[in-house]
Amino acid sequence: MSRARITLDRDFTIGEVPRRLFGSFVEHMGRCVYTGIYEPGHPEADENGFRQDVLKLVKELGATVIRYPGGNFVSGYNWEDGVGPREGRPRRLDGAWHTLETNAFGLHEFVDWSRQAGTEIMEAINLGTRGVDAAREIVEYANHPGGTYLSDLRAKNGHKDPFNIKLWCLGNEMDGPWQIGHKTADEYGRLAQEAAKAMRFVDPDIELVACGSSSSGMPTFGAWEQTVLTHAYEEVDYVSLHAYYQEHEGDVGSFLASAVDTDYFIESVIATADAVRAKGKHKKTINLSFDEWNVWYQRGLDTEDQPHQVAKAGWREHPRVIEDKYNVTDAVVVGTLLNSLLRHGDRVKIANQAQLVNVIAPILSEENGPAWRQTIFHPFARMAELAKGQILRLSVDSDKYENARFGGTDLVDVSATWNEETGRVALFFANRGLEEAADIEVALRGFDARQVLRAEVLEIPEGGDRFTVNTQGSPDQVGLRPLAGAKASGSELRATLPALSWAVIELEVIKN
Ligand code: AHR
Questions:
Q1: What percent of the chain is predicted at pLDDT more than 90?
Q2: Burial letters for 202-241: b for 16+ Cβ neighbours within 10 Å, e otherwise?
Q3: Does the active-site annotation cover 492?
């Protein structure tokens, strides 16, 4: 049995939980849109073609803001192709994913779908093949009330009232050589600055995200952020981060410690942005938008849904692309990544798990068939539901384990929130120990714990192992079960986490 002693204090808070931390991502990629959220003719589809079974799961997931329409896709996308009468919309080659794009689903459909889902829109613009003109035009089309060519065109196309999209991404992964229209940091920084200016002339109230690095391992990481922000500091509000993690053969220890990289990545970007602020004598603070993150098995697979195999198979409409099946270990890692985001909620104000349905997603759906929850659905859904109010600063003294990539790493990872309105403290734990349960002792300074309202755990199911996944036939093999033995009284909480598990404990507290 390993041990972890955690101390929290009612007066030591990091800041309010930014609800946009529980974002997701819908890209025109694989089956995320087509046969994911949109499938006319499906028995569960409404008159718009929106799958209500998928929508129900999206609501249960609790995603708050959804980035659209890409990803790599957006860097070759003409937004105009997706508006107007469907029969007139062009079929195009999408070079990013080697797919035939029908444009049957576009901006209006996404707005309607988002309204049903109750989610905010985060719209990405194409700064790969396009530029300042298209950037300002899409803002006029979407947000201008009326009386101009583009805003009247929106009305003619079915939406008289403006969409009022607040959050905009200035391109996608422009640092990556794989990106259509990839740019140097100077080229991109200037373009982002000018596009931002032109977009704000149309709508001064929008919030803008500049592209940061596609991962902390990019050769340009650090220098990229510095150069881009040196050009565009005054014009943008956020800088983006993207990170994907996977288990490499024989090194589960490093995989389980992935959040150490997330912490490093976030803290390095904060330091870089603040250095640019100091050097440029700027007053405002740039916050972070972690607008793509997840577990993604990018290397070592040769299945037909891998991008190189998809490309070999020729141009097709919505083929299967990177439909990763997530196991118990992946869910524990996702829990730690969420903890890292929450612990940095004073500066990370937006985060989007990539993606929402089918493509490296918490939800899977079959064409003309059912939809179900992957293992990684559960930590996300619970945190989105319960992480409200103030983020608590924690002091953690945990036993450690050694791993190749990060050295000594805490076996127990944790984040916590306090909702003063409801009188609830929520704690989100991961036990990275593969063999050992973990004994947890939490000192709740400034609180008097009344009762454990909820204690749930995601662990290896009976008869399964750490690779167990949910399937169409067995969609609930891995899920949340009651966590036995969690006890809270006075200013102390005690619990035992099973080996390799993610757990949530919610307490009713009063201030003392
Ligand atoms: O989410 C899948 C892809 O990963 C996105 O299109 C791209 O932005 C990133 O490289």
A1: 99
A2: bbeebbbbbbbbbbbebebbbebbbbbbbbbbebbbbbbb
A3: no
Out of 123, 137, 173, 506, pick the active-site residue.
173
Count Cα atoms within 13 angstroms, Cβ side, for 402: 1
Range(s) for CATH 3.20.20.80 in the chain?
A: 18-386
**Secondary structure letter of residue 289 according to DSSP:** E
Residue where the block lists tokens 């389980």: 256
Closest of 74, 65, 59 to residue 27, by C-alpha:
74
**Whole-number Å distance between alpha carbons of 384 and 387:** 6
Rounded to the nearest angstrom, the gap between the alpha carbon of residue 3 and the centroid of all alpha carbons in its chain is 31
With a 6 A CB cut-off, is 175 part of the ligand 1 pocket? no
Task: Residues 2-10+390-511: name the CATH superfamily.
Answer: Golgi alpha-mannosidase II (2.60.40.1180)
Quick one: pLDDT at residue 299?
85
Query: Measured between alpha carbons, how far is residue 357 from residues 151, 321, 455 in Å?
Result: 31, 11, 28
Give tens-digit pLDDT for 280-292: 999 999 999 999 9
Q: Whose CA is nearest to atom 2 of ligand 1?
A: 71
- H-helix or E-strand spanning residue 211: strand 207-213
- Could you read off the pLDDT of 373-422 as tens digits, one per residue? 999 999 999 999 999 999 999 999 999 999 999 999 999 999 999 999 99
As a whole number of angstroms, the distance between CA 243 and CA 290 comes to 8
- CA-based radius of gyration for the chain: 23
Q: Measured between alpha carbons, how far is 189 from 155 in angstroms, rounded to an integer?
A: 34
**CB-ligand 1 contact for 235 (6 Å cutoff):** no
Residue 131 tokens, joined: 């530029």
Question: Is 292 an annotated catalytic residue?
Answer: yes
Q: Count other Cβ atoms within 10 Å, centred on residue 287.
A: 18
- Ligand 1 and 172: CB distance under 6 A: yes
Pocket test for ligand 1, best of 67, 94, 173, 179 (most atoms within 8 A of CB): 173
Which 3 state secondary structure label does DSSP give 230?
Answer: helix
Residue 488 β-bridge partners: 493
Q: What pLDDT, on a 0 to 100 scale, did the predictor assign at position 432?
A: 98
Q: Which residues contact 232 (CB under 8 A, 6 or more apart)?
A: 189, 192, 193, 196, 210
How confident is the model over 119-134, as pLDDT tens digits? 999 999 999 999 999 9
Q: Which atom of ligand 1 is nearest to the CA of 96?
A: 6
Please state the atom number of ligand 1 nearest to the C-alpha of residue 173: 8
Q: Which CATH number fits domain 18-386: 3.90.78.10, 3.20.20.80, 3.40.50.720, 3.90.226.10?
A: 3.20.20.80
